[in-house]
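Consider this one:
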Amino acid sequence: MTAAVASVEASRDDAVLDISGLVRHFTGPAGTVKAVDGVSLSIGRGEIVGLVGESGSGKSTVGRCAVRLDRPTAGSVTINGREVTRLSRRALRPLRKDFHLVFQDPSSSLDPRMTVGAIVAQPLRLHRLASGDALRDRVAALLAQVGLRPELARRRPHELSGGQRQRVSIARALSVDPQLLVADEPTSALDVSVQASVLNLLADLQRERRFGCLFITHDLAAVEYLADRIAVMYLGQLVEQAPAAELFADPKHPYTQALLSAAPVPDPAAQRSRARIVLSGELPSPLDPPPGCRFHTRCPLAVDRCRTEPPALRGLAGGGGRQVSCHLVADDGTAPDASAP
């Protein structure tokens, strides 16, 4: 984890990833699903930004749009100062070595017909970065770097454990030294016993290589451990952004407060004394999101203004890049306690 925490302004000269006004809608027989609606986010070089929220909030869609596996409906995605939103597949091809994605399920993201060595070598061959003995040496070095024995290069994915397969995915993603890595819930498909080792591996590699990382997860303990800064999503929109330590110490948005109250703490006495915020109802459908603040249907503090006027994501006084989207949070950062409405 990096020591410095960068600003969260929408556009920065040092940003390896700059997302501005990102919109991704999917139209089908039932209507238009507003999966992502106006997300702005930036990641500095060497920075890890955690993107959290419950299932269906649009986190993975943001990640897929960031690496252009999905074309945004509107908005822009800039990587290393190059706007890539509307580039053709041919124009994108030479740029893809600068950004990679680690998928949630390594079983489905690794070609079962290829050996581990061939999988890790594929990006190097496609970008013509190595061949022959140099390619074999590079693959062996990458496997060693992610903690895999060199003889595993001759095996196929089904012969490996889940943790080993995810290490292969990480080795493949980092083989071309990308400046941006999007990790889409990289530990959620793994046994609890190996999740910590994969997180430690990501932290060590990021510290060594200094790539920017968008870490998508619903595991609050993992994001607290790994991220420099955290962005919280709800129903396709960002509701709060803050340095990780500040967000966990003093969440401002009622949804963030509820999210953190659901995460257990390792101190039994502290856990018993905590006030759990239980939200009523289910996450509304992105086919028909509520008017006004999208959280008002479940918010214990909602007032009439919340039901009609969408709140803007705005910065708070005091610097540090803290932003929140809530009518009830004052500009000086004073926020109501959602556990005591």
Remarks:
- The two ends are 36 Å apart (CA to CA).
- Residues 21 and 38 are 4 Å apart (CA to CA).
- The chain has one domain: 15-324.
